[in-house]
Design a protein that fits this description.
This is SEC24 homolog D, COPII coat complex component. InterPro entries: ADF-H/Gelsolin-like_dom_sf, Beta-sandwich_Sec23_24, Gelsolin-like_dom, Gelsolin-like_dom_sf, Sec23/24_helical_dom, Sec23/24_helical_dom_sf, Sec23/24_trunk_dom, SEC23_SEC24_subfamily. GO terms for molecular function: SNARE binding; zinc ion binding. One of its GO terms (biological process) is COPII-coated vesicle cargo loading. One of its GO terms (cellular component) is cytosol. The structure is a single chain. The protein is an alpha+beta fold and about 1050 residues long. The protein is about 25% helix and about 15% strand. Strands 11, 13, 17, 26, 28, 29, 31 and 32 form an eight-stranded mixed beta sheet that branches. Strands 18, 19, 20, 21, 22, 23, 24 and 25 form an eight-stranded mixed beta sheet that branches. The protein has a four-stranded mixed beta sheet with strand order 5-4-3-33. It is globular and about 75 Å long. The relative contact order is 0.14.
């Protein structure tokens, strides 16, 4: 085989030296290339590749014919024409002559390539697919090569000819074209406010605002992008190629053909291939650095020394050995940790280890807990720490002899020696004031102002609590919950209720001095529900009537949280506040807020202030709550702006959640709200938690993203942490990592259980280390990468203009792919965009992230909605961010009602919709049932009991319960999805071409954005040009 031939990929659990023979790095420094630097770091030169390797032929000429190529590692080719213009001159370029049919034919025949490599098919290896080269022709667009397997269905040729303009790409990002090495600050794309004009990021001049992330296009108007009721248009339209500028002659030439989605990497195909590979399999965790199945696959985990991927996932499972390699590749090094994740019923629950009064065995130096990475020596009398290499004495009670392999003979009898995840019972040394904790408490705090009474909200809350309190979370095996409950109502003043079991009637005590908040009663406020059931029922019946005639519309908010903190502090327990609130707090009291929603700030450098919470009272409250184990869950029912960025700052620092129901009406939002409330109250949770992540020598945890509070640089404080909350941890190099020993990390979570017991939950994970970038790239996990990028970008918008944040996302995408192409991929013509196999759908997720509400600049998006999504994402796990950035679009019109299988999802694009179709779309937060205008009458009759689609009522949020097989099947699918997801979702039934359809279309993430932003196809073209700039 030629030098371009395939080198068989090793099992990915082992680091392999010297793959492919390509040099690491970007070559020696000292070139005269333009400089490209990171924020706050020195500029570095980016060297061109060796002469002739990637040099473009003259503009207008077809590329040199290619022979069949084979890839060295798993990657995909997307090919572009060689006659690409420089980005810096793109908009001012004169029109080029239309290519002749013969030129088109020559180019098409020259670009057909097929590349394939043998794969490691072992179960523990990285999932791989046949890599196919997809070429770009200036007149026909994306073309699947002859003889190559199609990605989904039969590949089609088709794209609009651009009448002499370059193929669809993007202009420079309002600044100089990129040239230079990756940002030196590799792991963290948003280190701080950038100096103006640094490293290829220039500030755009006036009038450059346009489609999201790209400059305004000449001759284009916003009305061209968003048609009334039409949503974003799928793919380029005549005279409008995607979200990017075109040459002045773009309307001339032969008729345009539609681009073929099947010719570019498909998220659906990647998910389906992974599902088929792992479904029904047992994933064992006994191999260092193995890449787990995707979060979308169903599989069982057997813990054999590393934590389950349900608890910990990494952006890559092979760390670069040196900081220089990390800077070069730009792949962030991070772990996403969901410490209290729920395990499926077919997996073994975590073992609880109790060492009595002596407590857990730890390293004397680094304080790491006993785990499988500790090496016992000297006949078992000592152990060497796997994290800091310190040698420790083994306590007498813990001594055990070693077998012929140097392993303790009780290895399989002790979970801490053989498993990746387990729990220790904590001693009094781990408790506040060296006292065992009291059982936690839930306090329900209800806003009884005029709007909440009038809407019926207070009544349905009180009715729901009667049944919900019977289902308070409890420790597995316990007969009943030991959680105590308390009740507060408020408007301008606070009402506390004594519900002691001996009372015939509940007693109300009013606190009107909100400036100096205190709890007027101790005994009788926090009670056991079962003991005080009759009194609590009486209270919940009376509250709606008690305030039925209120005219009070002003409310307080900060004193409500303060009252909850004081109550928990007085009871010496941790707990959670459930606050039901409706309006911006305008009453004279601490924490009073003013309306600061200024649409004039949109698309300016001051837009970031809209996301920043107001400091002072709420900042101090967050610290008090974290210190006292008081978590806050906020249910908001606003009819206008409430400054959510400030009001949600306490929940977002205490492990809490924020739920929002705009213009609440019981008939419209009631079921949605009640499902959320039930899920929230009943979920498994730990209180008063502190988490620390320890690592082996050579790297360390440097940054943390989540609904957490940081008092110092190492301790992650969470007043509560539930089974859905995740913390994303970023790592940086301290020193060189050794390939032989790998890299280890240990997450230790100290928390109070539902029964009031103090415990330590330990998760251990070992990764490979490699000096070969190819190992790093094929060990990447795209879903985890996007979780990190989303959280780091959403934090960055607090301090940087949105335009800069979007530019950094695009630039980092280009750098990651440019580094892969230069150092890992086989030599290939410059017309190809080479994607690592493990990251071939990375661009579609990144483009979707850039079109999310917090990162688009539109005056049409409510500020509170943008702030809400920003804060929600910060605590999300990998599963949630994956679904948020690529919703599931499920066709229901052709399914078999008698089958138990869920129909296979299709690509999230308008091209997949059909006039006679019915589709269900969900992203974990919203759910739509879309009905085509030509939907068959029998389908409408079977689901809605209506003769035709025209009889369907607008604003439907629930499906009627009919006895037809189709109705039962659709309702079953909806119910299953509502049960699986972290949050409840409100169902929207929308008809094609109705006005509400515009809400549905904004979730078709492969199309152009509703509020600006490129289609997936256009973004790929733009990334290709950015990569090309870096490599020439």
């Amino acid at each position: 085989m030629s030098q371009q031939g395939y080198v068989a990929a090793p099992p990915y659990s082992q680091a392999q030296p010297g793959m492919g023979g390509y040099q690491g790095g970007y070559g020696p420094s000292g070139t005269t290339q333009p400089l490209y630097g990171h924020y706050g770091g020195p500029n570095q030169a980016y060297n061109a590749p060796p002469t002739g390797m990637l040099k473009s032929p003259a503009v207008g000429l077809p590329p040199t014919p290619l022979s069949t190529q084979y890839s060295q590692n798993g990657f995909s080719f997307l090919s572009f024409p060689n006659n690409v213009q420089e980005l810096s001159t793109y908009n001012s370029m004169p029109p080029q002559p239309q290519p002749t049919p013969q030129q088109i034919t020559n180019q098409m025949s020259a670009m057909i390539t097929y590349c394939q490599h043998a794969h490691d098919n072992s179960f523990n290896g990285r999932r791989t697919n046949v890599a196919t080269a997809y070429d770009w022709c200036p007149s026909y667009g994306w073309c699947s090569p002859m003889g190559a397997p199609p990605m989904a269905g039969t590949p089609l040729m088709g794209a609009p000819p651009m009448a002499g303009a370059p193929p669809m790409g993007a202009p420079p990002m309002a600044g100089a074209p990129m040239a230079g090495p990756p940002m030196a600050n590799m792991g963290r794309p948003f280190p701080g406010s950038p100096p103006p004009g640094v490293g290829g990021f220039q500030q755009a001049g006036p009038g450059t605002a346009g489609l999201q992330g790209f400059p305004q296009q000449p001759g284009r108007h916003r009305s061209d992008v968003i048609r009334q009721f039409g949503g974003p248009m799928a793919g380029p339209q005549p005279g409008m190629p995607g979200g990017f500028p075109s040459g002045p002659s773009q309307l001339s030439g032969p008729p345009q053909k539609k681009l073929d989605l099947d010719s570019i990497p498909s998220t659906i195909e990647v998910i389906e291939n992974d599902r088929l590979r792992y479904e029904g399999q047992i994933y064992t965790t006994n191999i260092r650095g193995q890449v787990p199945p995707l979060v979308t696959s169903q599989f069982a985990v057997q813990d054999q020394g590393n934590a389950s991927p349900r608890f910990m996932r990494c952006t890559t499972y092979a760390l670069p050995c040196t900081a220089d390699l990390a800077k070069q590749c730009q792949v962030p090094l991070a772990a996403i940790i969901k410490p209290l994740a729920i395990l499926p019923k077919n997996e073994t629950p975590l073992y609880v280890v109790n060492h009595g009064e002596t407590g857990p065995i730890r390293c004397n130096r680094c304080k790491a807990y006993m785990c499988p990475y500790m090496q016992f020596i000297e006949g078992g009398r000592r152990f060497q720490c796997g994290f800091c290499n310190c040698v420790n004495e083994v306590p007498v009670f813990y001594f055990q002899h070693l077998d012929h392999m140097g392993r303790r003979v009780d290895f399989y009898e002790r979970p801490e020696l053989s498993l990746g995840s387990y729990e220790f019972v904590a001693t009094l040394d781990y408790c506040k004031n060296n006292q065992p904790p009291n059982p936690p408490a839930f306090i329900f705090m209800i806003d009884v102002s005029y709007s909440n009474i009038k809407s019926g909200l207070v009544k349905i809350i009180c009715n729901e609590l009667k049944t919900l309190l019977e289902k308070l979370p409890k420790e597995e095996g316990s007969e009943s919950s030991v959680i105590k409950v308390g009740f507060v109502t408020y408007n301008k003043v606070l009402h506390f209720y004594n519900v002691k079991s001996g009372l015939a009637q509940p007693q109300m005590m009013v606190v009107s001095d909100t400036a100096e908040m205190f709890v007027p009663l101790l005994d009788g406020f926090l009670v056991n529900y079962q003991d005080s059931k009759a009194v609590i029922y009486n209270l919940l019946d009376q509250i709606p009537d008690m305030f039925a005639d209120t005219n009070e519309s002003e409310t307080v908010f900060a004193p409500v949280i303060q009252a909850g903190v004081e109550a928990l502090k007085a009871a010496e327990c941790s707990g959670k506040l459930f606050i039901f609130h409706s309006a911006i707090p305008t009453a004279e009291a601490p924490g009073k807020l003013k309306n600061r929603d200024d649409k004039k700030l949109i698309n300016t450098d001051k837009e970031k202030t809209l996301f920043q919470p107001q400091k002072g009272v709420y900042e101090q409250l967050a610290k008090d709550c974290a210190a006292n184990g008081c978590s806050v869950d906020l249910f908001l029912f606003p009819s206008q702006y409430v400054d959510l960025a400030t009001m949600a700052s306490v929940p977002s620092h205490t492990g809490g959640s924020v739920f929002k129901y705009n213009n609440f009406q019981v008939w419209y939002n009631g079921d949605h709200f009640l499902r959320d409330l039930r899920k929230d109250v009943q979920k498994s949770i730990g209180f008063d938690a502190v988490m620390r992540v320890r690592t082996s020598t050579g790297f360390r945890a440097t940054d943390f993203f989540g609904a957490v509070h940081m008092n110092n640089t190492t301790d992650v404080e969470m007043a509560a942490v539930d089974c859905d909350k995740a913390v994303t941890v970023e790592f940086k190099h301290d020193d060189t990592l050794a390939e032989e020993s790998g890299a280890m990390m240990q997450c230790a979570l100290l928390y109070t259980t539902l029964s009031g017991q103090r415990r330590l939950r330990i998760h251990n994970l070992s990764l490979n280390c490699s000096s070969q970038l190819s190992e790093l790239y094929k060990s990447c996990e795209t879903d985890a990468l996007l979780n990190f990028f989303a959280k780091s970008a959403y934090r960055a918008i607090l301090n940087q203009p949105l335009k800069n944040v979007r530019e950094i996302l695009v630039n980092q995408t280009a750098h990651i792919l440019a580094c892969y192409r230069k150092n890992c991929a086989s030599p290939s013509p410059p017309s190809q965009l080479v994607l690592p196999d493990a990251m071939k759908v990375f661009p579609v997720y990144m483009n979707s992230l850039m079109k999310t509400a917090p990162l688009v600049t539109s005056t049409e998006l409510p500020t509170d909605d943008r702030a809400h999504q920003r804060l929600s994402v910060m605590g999300m796990s990998v599963e949630e961010t994956q679904l948020l950035l690529y919703p599931r679009l499920i066709p229901l019109h052709n399914m078999d009602p008698g089958s138990d299988a869920l129909p296979a999802p299709v690509r999230c694009s308008e091209e997949r919709l059909s006039d006679a179709g019915m589709f269900l779309l969900e992203n974990g937060h919203s759910m739509f049932l879309w009905l085509g205008q030509a939907s068959p009458p029998d389908v409408i009759q079977g689901i809605f009991d209506l003769p035709s689609l025209a009889h369907l009522q607008p604003n439907m949020t629930a499906l009627p319960e009919l006895d037809s097989p189709l109705s039962k099947k659709v309702r079953s699918i909806v119910a299953d999805l509502l049960e699986k997801r972290t949050n409840s979702m409100k169902l929207h039934v929308v008809r094609q071409k109705d006005k509400p359809e515009i809400l549905f279309r904004q979730f078709l993430v492969e199309d152009k954005g509703l509020y600006g932003g490129a289609s997936y196809m256009d973004f790929l073209c733009h990334v290709y040009r950015e990569v090309r700039q870096l490599l020439t």
